[in-house]
Structures are given as C-alpha cells and as structure tokens.
Amino acid sequence: MRIAIFGKAFATEFDDAVKHILRRIEELDPNPLVEAAFMRMLDDRMKVSDKLQSFEEHHELQGCDFLVAIGGDGTVLEAATWVRGSEIPVLAVNTGRLGFLSNVGIEEIDLAMDALAAGRVWYEKRAMLHVEVEGMELGSFPYALNEVAIMKRDTSSMMTVEVHRDDVYVNSYWADGLIVATPTGSTAYSLSAGGPMVTPGSNVLCINPVAPHNLNNRPLIVPTEGEIQLVAEGRENQFLLSLDSRMFILDGGKKVRINPAPFHFVLINLEHQEFFGTIRAKMHWGIDPRDR
Length: 292
Prior knowledge:
By secondary structure, this protein is α+β, with helices and mostly antiparallel strands. It has helices spanning about 15-30, 35-45, 75-85, 110-120, 190, 275-285, and strands spanning about 5, 35, 55, 65-70, 90-95, 120-135, 145, 145-150, 160-165, 170-175, 175-180, 205-210, 220-225, 230-235, 240-245, 245-250, 255-270.
C-alpha cells in the first residue's frame, strides 16, 4: 500500500494525535510520502521518522493508493490540487473546526486506519468545476471543488453579474458578489450566503447572489451539465475571482466560463458515515437548545 500525506498547521493540542497518525500510517506503508512544506513543519514540532519521504510536485503521487489530509476543510480543498485528475482517494482527518469534508475525527484515527487496511471504507465521488476566462491564466489547476465566486474588491458600490447558461440569458444580479457552488460547496460559503444544503450526489449547481440589492433574487438550482457564463461589471473595473481559496484579479467585462470538470474528487468515508449524519452532528439538528 502506497500512502501520501498532506497537511497544514495545527494546534499543539493535536501533536500527540498527529504522531499517532504517522505511526499508524507507517504500519501500512513503511515509507510514506509527505508534502515537503508539511514535512518541514513536522520536523520543527516533533521528531519524525527518517523513513518519511517528501514530495514537492503532484506527479510524484503517481502510484499512490491514498492521500491522508490532516487539517480542516481548507486543507482538503488544497489536497484536491495535489491529487488533481488522478482521482487518488483522500482520507481527511480533522484537526480544524467544523469539518464537513475533513470528516474523520481525531478519536477515530485507529478506526480509520484499521478500516483502510481491511478495505472497510466507501468512496464518494464529488463533482468539480472547470473555469476558463478569456485572456487570463488561472494557474496549473483551474478547477474548484467547493465554488467559483466573483466578489467586489471595495466596500462601497455594488457590482452587476450577468449570468447566461448555454448562451441563454438567466439574470443580471446587483449584489456584492455571486457564487456558483457544487453540492460539496453548498455547506460552505454558499450556505452562509443563504443558499440551500444539497446532498453530495445531486447533479446540480447552486447560483447564489451575495447580499443582492433585489430581495426577490434568491438562490437558483440548475443542472450541472451545461456551461455557465458570468460577466461582472461595476463602478470599479476589477473584481475578485475565487476558485475555492485561490484568488485572482478579474477585469470587468471578461467572460468567465464554468463547466463540469472531466474528473472527480474522491473522498474516503468510514462505513458508518453518511451525509445526513454529518449534517446532524455539525449543524446540531434535533438538539433542543434548552438542553445545552
């Protein structure tokens, strides 16, 4: 079994747990690969095994069976930039806060490692988006797992985002911004902007304005298939375009084209894990606030 490890900074209270994760991973792969920046952080914080090998380029993950992401949901989003189109499954261990994607708790490390070794896990394919902008380079990974968003840069005037789907005019939104969210992203930025939660297997996207001027402009659900085109204009001629946590400066009038990606992000779940159970736990559904 070949395992890669990627992570971000975590609180010192998780030091012992991370040491335990590394020990358990070495039982499955005596020479696991660790992302170079994370390896340097681990070396500064704790004594790590000299059997760990570092990687710096995504192509070095070729042949890996799994990638273990240690951190919060933001770490999982960044892990997507490492596995890319390989569809290497990702096991996400939560050392962050809420954790919709990083769904394996610290207390479940042994359970998760035993399940990986025995094959008692299930794989969930999450849709991703491919983004193109005329005359712009969006780096080596122009894809998003959670959402694509266009936001204003200043705090004063609103912006207008004109939306087409397959060249058919949908609407012009006067707002602080606009989000196009996948089902995965429906529990992220879009949710905080009043969007609905969408089950991960749904073949839909959510077009959601941020603080719209017209209160009858509500979130819109459309099929995933088909191209969504966005054009932003306003008093300022530059805006922010985000692909998950990666930010770019977008000139006004540039057409942003959003299509389904030709590959998926594959998330590893333990046998007992499912979407509604996660929602109940994270959103405290069914809990009487008087009992807290």
